[in-house]
Fold:
Amino acid sequence: MIPHSGHAAARRDIAADITAKIIADLERGVMPWKKPWNGDRAGGPPGLPLRVNGAPYRGVNVVLLWSRAADAGFRARHWFSFRQALALGAHVRKGEKGESVVYYGRMQRTRTDRHGDAVEDSVRFLRAYTVFNADQIEGLPQGYAVDEVATVSVPPLAEHEAWFASLDIQRVVTRDQAFYSPGRDVIGMPPIDVFDGADLYAQTLNHECVHATGARHRVGRDFSRRYGDHAYHVEEICAELGAAYLGAYLGLPPGHLHDHTAYIGHWIALMKRDRRAFFDAAAKAQAAVDWLLIKSGRVAPEIADTGGEAP
Structure:
């Protein structure tokens, strides 16, 4: 087997395995980006999962680690590779099972063109590595593990409104529907008093803000080329994930996101047809959140771009 075929097979295996995990959750009626905040689960601390250096994970890795934390009842936010734990003088407890997260990178490959000349191509690849939650590790320095489940401190609406005002996105008051209109480039939001709390209003607005980043003069996102008639459902996954990421950055509880159970059947069918669809939506959601945070001046040092997401 030539090396190129091996890399391609590895990419397919990783994408298929992770997509299968997401589909399994959806087939049970569970959206994995909401699981950490469900009241019947002990695990899943609020906030983004963190690497050893305190920087947050990004994209699809956020969903994978949120989901595992909820299922396993983990209370800590930090995750480590086996070697990272050893480097800190700690060790993973015997019998513990890690979680796979992914790394994107590029490699140079030489090929011969039709004229017989050597040509260098930059090829993107996907690899997986295994990490363990701090709750699975013994001997960590103080500050990595936690004794109690963290609680969400919801910021006041005025703070979120100030954040939204910095985005320069127009908003109009509607009667009973929240939406983003691409043609008018405007977000429609019902009055806050029709919502069951300011946090629900803020998260709904976040969802529409992610939709708004798709405009050409912002991020410029178009799923129609690849997904055709299914582009709408990919965009909804993107907005759901983006609102969850954004809520975690801003201190809002993602458990209050939209109820999109009506879309689950469409999402399952889409992911079964295209194993890369969820990866694509998650990456575009992260790009949308990056734009919103940079535009609003809310990007903290720990939210720096980490490229391919090394452990």
About this structure: The chain is about 40% helix and 15% strand. The radius of gyration is 20 Å. The first strand starts at residue 79 and ends at 80.
